[in-house]
Design goal:
407 residues, alpha+beta, Hect, E3 ligase catalytic domain fold, Methane Monooxygenase Hydroxylase, Chain G, domain 1, 12 helices, 18 strands, disordered N terminus
């Protein structure tokens, strides 16, 4: 839109006769940005949402988190546009001016004072949470795929690798975690109840959820043993060793489930806890950071993908299980020419060939202290033609050879 001696009009307005008039199309987009930010609490997430809705910038390009920040913080949104807020100093750098150098142009508001204040509170809280206290930041949790721990800049709200210059915004990292952790909670429903619900019925439901996951694991173990025996991958003796614990586990778990369901039937019905999405959006920034620190062992940032190694509490051992996940989740199996490769099972599922959990298989293919940093099972990272994200593949022959040698 047009510019005058006052400079380019702020987004949502146009200059007309020395006055700022609403540009209805831009104003609607800016109003949507405020609504989205209050809901999503992430400038990067707002930018993605507007781009997905094909509500672009004035020049017709995609929004960035920096541009979203500008339209959220410019006071023209509440009818007060300041001119000459910055000036070029003697050193050639732009700096903020004092109030005496500024002038104010009144204009029609785009949002209410309530929306403006709520947005300002969220922005202020996010800045405060990202200051020096390492317990309310993600400093130390984020590593680059090249092996370097990424440094955290509170001022820029991003992580940066000093070796390869890879950068990732904190808003992006939080948004990726919240979306993926919601999926992880589906595989570990007892965690969801522990986070968003607390009642007698909720505690029983958490125990039932844990047992139902265990029952599914035992049934998968039994099916895997039967499948391996059918294709001649294990001897009859090894088949019996695999099948018997699974059968016993199924019988024991079904008995415990029946008892808990009878107990639940006599418990006052608890109000349904809020969904993970609603729960997460309602948390203050520092609480969200503490939840991430409680459940994440490490973020590994690669080209086009982020691996999240979760710390999942084990109710039986009182220890944490490290459970890596790569975002986004790629197809469960990938076919390649030559040797046969398989993908890791999804969280909460077991490998159809071995009956092993995702965490256990990660111990076999990734260098870690448990295997003295020498993975006993061969794997490789593969990027298929046309895909920007790689996937980790396990050599089936190497996996079966390892199991035979240890069985």
């Amino acid at each position: 839109m047009g510019s005058t001696k006052q400079g380019q009009a702020p987004f949502g307005y146009r200059w007309q006769g020395g006055q700022l008039r609403l540009n209805e199309q831009e104003a609607a987009t800016r109003r949507t940005a405020f609504d989205l930010f209050i809901s999503l609490r992430s400038k990067s997430a707002v930018a993605r949402a507007l781009n997905d809705q094909k509500q672009f910038t004035r020049s017709g390009k995609d929004w960035s988190d920096v541009q979203i920040g500008r339209i959220l913080e410019c006071s023209s949104a509440i009818g007060r546009y300041e001119i000459n807020r910055t000036a070029v100093g003697d050193d050639g750098k732009r700096m903020a001016t004092g109030s005496a150098a500024r002038s104010v142009v009144a204009c029609e508001p785009i949002v209410t004072q309530k929306v403006w204040s709520r947005t300002a509170d969220i922005l202020r809280a996010k800045r405060t949470a990202r200051k020096a206290d390492p317990e309310v930041t993600l400093a130390g949790l984020v590593r680059c795929r090249c092996g370097i721990q990424m440094s955290h800049s509170a001022e820029r709200a991003e992580f940066r690798c000093s070796k390869c210059a890879t950068t990732l915004g904190l808003d992006d990292l939080e948004a990726i975690f919240s979306g993926d952790f919601g999926e992880t909670l589906k595989a570990h429903p007892q965690l969801s109840l522990g986070l968003v619900g607390d009642s007698e019925a909720g505690q029983i439901m958490a125990r039932i959820a844990h047992l139902e996951v265990s029952l599914s694991e035992f049934e998968t173990e039994r099916a895997a043993a039967e499948k391996m025996f059918a294709v001649g991958a294990v001897t009859r003796q090894r088949f019996a060793q695999l099948q018997q614990p699974a059968e016993e586990g199924i019988a024991r778990t079904q008995k415990e489930l029946s008892a808990l369901k009878r107990e639940l039937a006599g418990t006052p019905t608890a109000k349904d806890p809020p969904s993970w999405e609603d729960f997460w959006r309602g948390l203050p920034p520092e609480r969200r950071i503490r939840i991430i620190r409680a459940f994440v062992d490490q973020f590994t940032v690669g080209e086009g993908e982020i691996e999240i190694a979760y710390l999942i509490p084990d109710a039986e051992t009182a220890e944490d299980t490290v459970e890596p996940r790569t975002m986004p989740v790629a197809p469960h199996s990938v076919k390649t020419d030559g040797p046969v490769y398989i993908r890791l099972p999804k969280p909460g599922e077991l490998c159809a060939y071995t009956g092993l959990s995702r965490a256990k298989m990660n111990e076999l293919i990734l260098a870690n202290a448990r295997n003295n940093f020498r993975p006993p099972v061969a794997s490789k990272s593969l990027r298929q033609p046309g895909q920007q994200r790689g996937v980790r593949l396990i050599l089936l022959e190497s996996l079966m050879s390892y199991l035979h040698s240890t069985g």
